[in-house]
């Protein structure tokens, strides 16, 4: 069964079209990599699915529920978490306070959630009293992911998670996303660079100037195809 189904999605910013007639599905327990050069509309797609930008047309359904016109809060309650580009942590709060905010609406599950977060990323346990703004970039990324996974989401939208991180940290981030997927979470993975995303994902969708230029199984997106659609800079 499809967890997420996006059909004919278009988004405009004023007079400028950012997405035109984008359709795809993410079956349960699978990952879709959305690739494309700068400005192709990847973040806009993520924001439209999580309700942060208005859709000018198209529908979004999740687990059979129509989410096309509902608020971001309701979309979160349906089980979709969005890790925005940039880290989205509260810099002036400690690691622990940031994690607690993840389950602010559900304090009963807080203890178990924290335990899971520290098990996933032990470094966060060691640094629980440290201000998030003083963590390294990679640690902030882990905090952001740990907070998202604490709420036991059904779909994680991860926008450029690996941007600027050392390869070892990228491994760790993908490892934990992989564990989440094995535990039943679907993943919409947005990446400017193709290599790691395609290794991880089941399906791939390439956006160019707001439209889908190719989609198919991730393991059939060969080098030639990536160069054709993404160019030298992003096919790596
Ligand atoms: N709030 C906004 N107002 C006006 N135009 C916007 C807004 N946000 C994005 N755009 C434009 O929409 C297009 C798609 O942007 P988007 O951020 O979705 O691309 P992207 O594929 O995520 O790019 P990148 O890889 O550079 O992050 C771009 O031309 C961008 O300038």
From TrEMBL:
Keywords: Amino-acid transport, ATP-binding, Nucleotide-binding, Transport
Domain annotation ABC transporter: ranges: 4-234
Molecular function terms from GO: ATP binding; ATP hydrolysis activity; branched-chain amino acid transmembrane transporter activity
Xref: InterPro entries: AAA+_ATPase, ABC_transporter-like_ATP-bd, ABC_transporter-like_CS, BCAA_Transport_ATP-bd_LivF, P-loop_NTPase
A single GO BP: L-amino acid transport
Family per record: Belongs to the ABC transporter superfamily.
Annotated protein name in UniProt: ABC transporter ATP-binding protein
Organism of this sequence: Cryptosporangium phraense
